[in-house]
Structure prediction request, 56 residues.
Amino acid sequence: MSAIENKQPQPFAVVAGVSMRDLLASCAAAEAVSTPPRLPDPATVVEQPMERPKAA
Prediction:
């Protein structure tokens, strides 16, 4: 017997039932998690002086 004769026919691959909505939501969540936060706009940032502790 050859290796081909010993093989049984394989059933069709089982596809998980994932809706398109769930797939798109997972992609959006993955993108949101992996994207670094945007830098603040320099025109809208107001510099406030840092409070420093007073020397003893």
